[in-house]
Design brief:
Blueprint lengths: L3 E7 L1 H5 L3 H10 L3 E8 L3 H7 L4 H17 L4 H5 L4 H15 L5 E8 L2 H9 L12 H5 L4 H6 L8 E3 L3 H11 L13 H5 L2
Antiparallel strand pairs: 1-3, 1-4, 2-3
Helix pairs in contact: 4-6
């Protein structure tokens, strides 16, 4: 079985609250290998490249927003001036660009078996209010959609974690050069995986 890699991006709310070490520790503690680290001010170009720029992605983000609004009996058209999912998705992407430039971001590449599934589980639901206790978002955030949209910003959820192997590979290439990534065996791999 081949190991996977995932990009973890600690967002400005995680950086500004001094949570980098606490967040990173959770991924190391479970046995994932840190193969790249970086601290930088994100450029608009990298953020635009990081988040998809397709109508399918905008529609998915917009529909999720519309669904969450409908559950709460809120009128999305009042906030966004439209109820078109693609337009709402584009607005959210612009909010993300602004958000990720509020402070430096901390970038990590982790590697391991079923790495994507592990990082998603540790990170928790992207909506902190729905994230389970014991996850990063569940333990360190409780931001809500209503407040975020009222303030014309995305939900502050501390961390981005790759959600597919393909996304992980693409995202890592945006943020890291090949010579900034390392491969090595952790001492505990023999105990954990019988190597």
């Amino acid at each position: 079985m081949k190991k996977q890699r995932a990009l973890l991006l600690i967002k400005p709310d995680g950086v500004q609250r001094g949570l980098i070490g606490k967040i990173l520790k959770r991924f190391e503690r479970v046995g994932l290998t840190v193969v790249g680290l970086k601290f930088e001010w994100a450029t608009k170009e990298k953020i635009v490249a990081h988040y998809p720029d397709t109508d399918a992605w905008f529609k998915k983000v917009g529909e999720r927003t519309l669904t969450n609004y409908a559950k709460k009996g809120l009128d999305a058209k009042k906030i966004f001036g439209t109820d078109a999912a693609v337009s709402i998705g584009k607005t959210v992407k612009n909010w993300l660009i602004d958000y990720l430039q509020e402070s430096p971001v901390f970038l990590t590449v982790v590697e391991g078996y079923e790495c994507i599934e592990v990082v998603r589980k540790i990170s928790g639901n992207t909506l902190p209010i729905l994230a389970a206790a014991g996850t990063i978002r569940g333990d360190f955030s409780h931001d809500i959609i209503d407040l975020a949209n009222e303030q014309n910003r995305p939900v502050r959820n501390l961390i981005h974690a790759s959600d597919t192997v393909e996304d992980g590979e693409k995202e890592i290439k945006i943020w890291f050069k090949d010579n900034e990534l390392f491969s090595y065996e952790r001492a505990d791999e023999r105990i954990m995986f019988g190597k």
